[in-house]
Specification:
Blueprint: H1 8-27, E1 30-34, E2 40-44, H2 52-59, H3 62-82, H4 87-118, H5 123-148, H6 150-159, H7 161-178, H8 189-205, H9 213-233, H10 250-265, H11 267-274, H12 277-288, H13 290-308, H14 321-325, H15 327-345, E3 353-354, H16 363-383, H17 387-404, E4 407-408
Parallel strand pairs: 3-4
Antiparallel strand pairs: 1-2
Helix pairs in contact: 1-3, 1-11, 1-12, 1-13, 3-8, 3-10, 4-5, 4-13, 4-16, 4-17, 5-8, 5-13, 5-16, 6-7, 7-8, 8-10, 9-10, 13-15, 16-17
């Protein structure tokens, strides 16, 4: 099957756009408030704006992340298989790509917050910062679950692509119908829903939307948003896509249909923009450190905002004109904080390799690593992220990295002329902007 319906330049630009939207959006949401009694709370300033609810239908780009991940993931899986790799090799590579940067974040957060606690910082402030660190991790858990399921889902897609998507959609709807009676079931859609959205990326990768044509793609965009509007109007779902995000529900899948169709529709424009030399350099640089940026930007933003409360600098109330005018400065300061972090821990995203003679990791080690990673993740999802769980999570993630070892060169080396490409895009030729 052809894997060129969405050119690499268009994919890279779409992922870069998603990452930029997330970082910029969070700078307009985080707003710690120091109350007269000394307590500290955090307001979501942007989310509290009345006009933001319809806008977030456009700016909620998490489905597009998974669509893009489905495209590149399917490409990587097929290239790896052509080189002699198997599902265990794919799981090993994907987990290392994702959990190595996360392990560093958890370790630094635990050490820093524990030191702050010993220094006498209020427990409430520490818990607020720990919760901020946990917000990016839910996405890591969902994305990792979708990627680990990719070999199986790719096999189902090869046999019956539309039936596979329909089956996952049915599971999403079933969970939504049962979540009222058993709320804990809602968390199953962190797997079912994002796997369904990832499946849309498979369709784009194989050109299954190619023959629909522009009118059909526009119809998908209008139809999915109209259906979403009706469901919100009937009161079945919230109109706030931030509320619908965790745990996710059918509304995010409808957005996924709309965004996948839009990506196909805008493919020529994105490909042209993404092929510009300066754009390729920008995307390539961002792609090398995308996971680090995604994981670290929110904890750094929360820490910076909290530190500002301890100074005599003006503290405009969230949502006021002064607060909005200060957002560009906050964004620049955040970028300034990210640069040394990228220099220190960004290399953890580089492709880890071992000698070509190194044996593949046993399947039991890879599966055990996945279980070890999800123990603290499930605990955090059900009970919230605490300082103790930060430390336990860092230990679990570090153990998983040890279990996974390093990826043999034969799975990442450039292929011979005429052969298939590397399983993961090699920066800076193609940005790997998939958190």
């Amino acid at each position: 099957m052809p894997l060129s319906e969405i050119p690499a330049a268009a994919q890279d630009l779409a992922r870069f756009f998603c990452l930029a939207i997330v970082v910029v959006g969070h700078t307009m949401m985080v707003s710690p408030v120091l109350h007269p009694d000394g307590t500290v709370t955090s307001d979501n300033t942007l989310g509290n704006q009345g006009w933001f609810e319809p806008v977030v239908w456009v700016l909620q780009v998490m489905p597009l992340f998974f669509v893009a991940g489905g495209i590149t993931g399917l490409q990587s899986w097929r290239r790896l298989r052509a080189r002699g790799g198997n599902a265990v090799d794919f799981m090993q590579a994907r987990m290392l790509r994702l959990i190595r940067p996360a392990a560093a974040l958890l370790a630094v957060m635990f050490t820093g917050l524990w030191a702050a606690r010993l220094a006498g910082v209020d427990r409430q402030v520490i818990q607020l910062l720990a919760t901020g660190a946990g917000m990016p991790l839910w996405f890591l858990a969902s994305y990792l679950a979708a990627q680990l399921s990719l070999p199986l889902l790719a096999r189902l897609h090869a046999r019956a692509p539309w039936l596979a998507l329909a089956g996952l959609t049915s599971l999403v709807v079933a969970v939504d119908c049962l979540r009222g009676a058993m709320p804990v079931l809602a968390y199953l859609n962190m797997i079912f829903l994002w796997c369904a959205v990832q499946q849309l990326g498979f369709l784009l990768a194989d050109g299954d939307l190619r023959d629909i044509g522009r009118p059909g793609l526009v119809g998908i965009i209008l139809g999915s948003n109209l259906t979403l509007g009706v469901l919100v109007w009937l009161g079945l779902y919230s109109g706030n896509m931030l509320v619908n995000l965790n745990p996710p529900n059918l509304t995010l899948l409808l957005l996924g249909f709309s965004q996948a169709a839009a990506l196909q529709l805008l493919r020529p424009v994105l490909a042209e923009l993404g092929s510009l030399a300066w754009m390729r350099r920008l995307i390539g640089a961002a792609g090398r450190f995308s996971m680090t940026v995604y994981l670290w930007h929110l904890p750094l933003l929360a820490a910076m905002s909290g530190m500002l409360l301890l100074t005599d600098l003006p503290q405009p109330a969230g949502g006021t004109a002064g607060w909005w005018w200060g957002r560009p400065l906050v964004l620049l300061a955040l970028i300034g904080l990210l640069l040394p972090v990228l220099a220190l821990v960004g290399r953890l995203e580089e492709r880890p390799t071992a000698p070509v003679t190194a044996p593949s990791r046993p399947a039991a080690a890879v599966v055990t690593a996945a279980v070890v990673v999800y123990v603290p993740v499930v605990d955090a999802a059900l009970n919230g992220l605490t300082l103790g769980l930060l430390g336990g999570g860092a230990a679990c993630f570090a153990l998983a990295v040890l279990l996974l070892g390093r990826i043999p060169v034969r799975l990442v080396a450039e292929s011979a002329p005429g052969g298939s490409g590397p399983p993961l895009p090699r920066p800076p030729l193609s940005a790997n902007v998939e958190p």
